[in-house]
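for the recovery benchmark. tokens below, seq after
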């Protein structure tokens, strides 16, 4: 036996849309116990079961009408950024642009597959591999400086006695090079610091730039972090990414300072001339006793060795150099 037919539900639904009937519906629900106890089947001819059916139909009809008249806007799917460096193996990337930015340094842009970019955790690098025939492959680590949809950029300095940089500098648009990553170096997300000192030489600026950009990004959670960068180069023309560094310093005067040092400078040079000495470090960087601090070092091998001891490809190497002489603990120094 069907107490409520589709036709009855539709009729109830239409009736419930009227304001007067909506009020009656509310009153019926609030006095349901009273009405149901007063009704007698013999006098009314309507059983309690039928009454329940009509009330149930009113509830169902109200729900059905309300749900059918309400349109739910679809939730847009958020695009998840996917990186080409997923550590599963080497990937071949095609060079699309090669541009000289100094007499021995190039900016090289490699294309990434559609829907992928070259983003990496801060701070980490990738490994570049070149293999000629059946010879053993040549492998070197590099840190991207820019990444966007469809490309990833590297700044690479050519060393005449290098095994890979002369080959990379000779690449032409359309040529390919193999990469693998990410190779984690320092996990900034897990171990951020409030007082940061940086000593970089030449292209050793690239891992420093990863951290600097992360700290001063508009979405950064490291608003209290203070960074001082000592950036050493041979000449003023060798300074890489100077406009960006100066802009960040100008926009964040209380939290970022950059000090330039040159081996050979002009008469009008206002920065440091000469090597990064004890006096330079003491004057600008966080001290060995400063809380929540760290000193990052990256650059040519001889520079790193004189500042913090020789590094190696698989670890931090032996701690030493000027930083050790000044009393810094090895736990508060990191060599990229």
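predicted aa per position
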């Amino acid at each position: 036996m069907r107490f409520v037919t589709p036709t009855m539900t539709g009729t109830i639904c239409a009736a419930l849309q009227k304001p007067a009937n909506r009020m009656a519906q509310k009153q019926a629900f609030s006095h349901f116990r009273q009405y149901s106890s007063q009704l007698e089947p013999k006098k009314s001819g309507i059983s309690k079961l039928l009454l329940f059916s009509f009330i149930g139909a009113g509830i169902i009809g109200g729900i059905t009408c309300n749900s059918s008249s309400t349109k739910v806007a679809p939730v847009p799917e958020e695009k998840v950024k996917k990186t080409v460096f997923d550590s599963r193996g080497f990937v071949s990337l095609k060079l699309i642009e090669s541009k000289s930015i100094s007499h021995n340094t190039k900016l090289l842009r490699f294309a990434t597959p559609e829907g992928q970019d070259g983003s990496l955790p801060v701070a980490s690098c990738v490994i570049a591999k070149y293999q000629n025939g059946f010879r053993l492959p040549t492998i070197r680590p590099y840190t991207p400086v820019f990444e966007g949809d469809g490309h990833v950029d590297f700044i690479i300095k050519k060393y005449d006695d290098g095994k890979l940089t002369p080959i990379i500098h000779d690449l032409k648009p359309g040529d390919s090079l193999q990469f693998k990553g990410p190779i984690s170096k320092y996990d900034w997300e897990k171990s951020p610091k409030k007082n940061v000192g940086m000593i970089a030489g030449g292209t050793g600026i690239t891992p420093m730039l990863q951290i600097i950009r992360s700290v001063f990004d508009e979405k950064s959670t490291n608003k209290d972090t203070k960074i001082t960068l000592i950036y050493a180069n041979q000449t003023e023309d060798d300074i890489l990414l100077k406009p960006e560094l100066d802009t960040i310093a100008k926009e964040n005067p209380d939290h970022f300072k950059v000090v330039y040092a040159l081996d050979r400078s002009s008469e009008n040079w206002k920065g440091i001339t000469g090597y990064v000495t004890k006096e330079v470090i003491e004057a600008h960087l966080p001290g060995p006793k400063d809380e929540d601090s760290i000193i990052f070092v990256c650059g040519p091998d001889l520079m790193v060795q004189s500042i913090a001891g020789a590094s190696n490809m698989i670890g931090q190497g032996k701690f030493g150099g000027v930083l050790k002489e000044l009393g810094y603990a090895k736990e508060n120094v990191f060599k990229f």
